[in-house]
Design brief:
By secondary structure, this protein is an all-alpha fold. Helices cover about 90% and strands about 0% of the residues. It has one domain (about 45-190): Four Helix Bundle (Hemerythrin (Met), subunit A) (Up-down Bundle), CATH 1.20.120. Residues about 155-165 have low confidence and may be disordered.
């Protein structure tokens, strides 16, 4: 074998292996690209699941706050019945004081739960940096604060709530809660689109 034949054989062998090498490189690039894409999608899904979990936690906490406030509102109604019973002579002063005290003692021991749920909601809402959600939350907190303060003020002033039990407006509280819930639902829906 002469040298030209040897060079021709080597060049021919290289020419035959170049397409195989290029094919393997292209397949490797495609495989890496697909793997990176799957990793990105997995990260996005993981992030969406965490956001969804946070939204559900906010919704649950909101429902618990509304339930506690509703219980408090029911106590206001029961207090009105106790006041009427006292005024009608059905119960005496001592029974009135005892019944009224037992009504509110239970609520004031549960009042810290409202603060706890409110803190959880605030922490999670502000983590989203979503203006619509923050605004809806702020409106709800403002109305809820006014509602609770009116109950505290009335209890301190009269030791009873003889004024209109819906003075601050339970309807306004529930409407703001509904608007906040709607903003949360919209955020949840936008995640799933």
């Amino acid at each position: 074998m002469n040298r030209d034949t040897l060079i021709a054989a080597l060049v021919g062998g290289l020419i035959a292996t170049i397409p195989v090498i290029l094919s393997n490189v292209v397949q490797l690039i495609i495989h890496n690209s697909e793997r990176n894409q799957k990793e990105k999608e997995a990260k996005i899904q993981s992030k969406e699941k965490l956001i969804e979990r946070d939204i559900v936690q906010i919704m649950d906490s909101l429902e618990k706050i509304i339930a506690l406030l509703s219980q408090q509102r029911s106590m206001d109604v029961r207090l009105q019945v106790i006041i009427k019973a006292k005024e009608g002579g059905v119960i005496n002063e001592q029974e009135y004081t005892s019944d009224a005290k037992s009504l509110y003692d239970n609520f004031w021991t549960r009042f810290p739960e409202v603060n706890q749920y409110s803190d959880v909601i605030s922490r999670l809402v502000y983590s989203f940096k979503d203006d619509k959600l923050v605004s809806a939350h702020g409106n709800f907190v403002k109305v809820m604060g006014m509602y609770l303060n009116s109950r505290i003020d009335n209890k301190a002033e009269n030791d009873s709530i003889e004024a209109n039990i819906d003075g601050i407006g339970w309807g306004i509280v529930t409407r703001q809660a509904g608007m906040f819930h709607s903003a949360l639902r919209d955020k949840l829906i936008s995640l799933r689109e």
